[in-house]
Amino acid sequence: MRTTVNFIKNLNIKLFLITCLVSPRLWADPLEDQSNFESDLEVGVALNLVSQPTAMRGASVFEIPNLKASFEVTRAEGNSFQLVLRGTDNRDATSKKFQVEAQKAAVILKSFFSNSFWIEAGLIGNPWNEVSEELWDFQFWGDASFPALRRYKYLSTSELGFNAHWNINERFGLSLSAMNGESAVEAEKGPKKDIQLILWFEDETWQASAGYLQGAYDDDDTEISKKERQLFRVAYAWEPIQAAIELYKTRDSSRAIKALGIAEGLDLSSIINQSIEGQGGSFTLRWSFNDFYSLRLRADQLNPATKLDASDVKSQIVAISYEPARGTNFSLIYLRTDLGPNHSLISKTSEKAMIALGMHF
């Protein structure tokens, strides 16, 4: 068992993993079999009105915070390939204002196994993030709309690696992932990998999940390089209400927190070359008044460094949505974020009102 774990951790996972795993059976002669092609497009347009004690007070900005195109080709035997492209509205000095990047490019293998087990490999999404996004289902209007662990950069949007999924029965399942741990924007720097295990339960009204991720940062000394996520989530859905609570504990090196911009740019200049523990939680609520109108509430509470007093991050989202047709969402959104006195040198309070349109084709 120890030999197997060491092999996984030292495996240099790259995109050619797709080619290694795909057999001739997967890409059979198209004349001998039939494929199904599906596509999906999401677009979000927003008008922001900023209110904060900086030069941005009163500024209004048009944005396209979400532009995502998804494609999937499925063979008759069940194997498939998924490609997700995401456009981002960048305003920094080193990149184009708009750029498109691959968020997912993965082969999903089912024909080699039973119907309850499958593997996806390549550029994959984090399974915990993907379920959180399905439950929240309101991330078309900007980075702050993403679930907490993605917003605060504790879990990457995309990773090179593989996931193995097993539906044990109708109510229980698990997934095991091995990933580079450098996200999709960084090159792999060493042999250390992220290993993640998720267990879940769901029935008609409840969903509960527990997850654990362990890895290490290649650029840090061994005694402070540990990367750890302890995850728990419970969700309840009974029309017209859907609610979820997510709790998590984290461990990162102080260097990694600064380099990756974790926790809204937490400043750890007073704590260098140390292992930093954090903890947080998020509550979300969706209340559908009828087929057209709904209310969404969200509250995040994060203590990113238990060693540093008054470094917490608090955020609240209130939104009223109108959906005149399926796939079209007009929303009025209020976002407030408060940072503790010792968090950083940036503004301690920021407020933003938004008018957003999301369309799904």
Rg, rounded, reads: 21 Å
User: From the helix content, strand content and strand pairing, which structural class follows?
Assistant: mainly beta
Strand order of the largest sheet: 1-2-3-4-5-6-7-8-9-10-11-12-13-14-15-16
Distance between the termini: 47 Å
Low-confidence stretches: 1-32
Strand content: over 45%
What order do the SSEs take from the amino end to the carboxyl end, as H and E? Answer: HHEEEEEHHEEEEEEHHEEEEE
Shape: globular
How confident is the prediction overall: mean pLDDT? 84
Fraction of helical residues: 10-25%
The tally of helices reads: 6
Structural commentary:
The protein has six helices and 16 strands. With 361 residues, the chain is mostly beta strands. Strands 1-2-3-4-5-6-7-8-9-10-11-12-13-14-15-16 form a 16-stranded antiparallel beta barrel. Strand 1 (35-51) and strand 2 form a beta hairpin. The chain is globular.
Task: Write a brief structural summary.
With 361 residues, the protein is mainly β. The protein contains six helices and 16 strands. The protein has helices spanning 2-9, 17-21, 127-136, 148-151, 254-260, 262-265; strands at residues 35-51, 60-75, 80-89, 98-109, 117-125, 158-167, 172-179, 194-202, 206-216, 226-238, 241-253, 275-288, 293-303, 313-325, 328-339, 349-360.
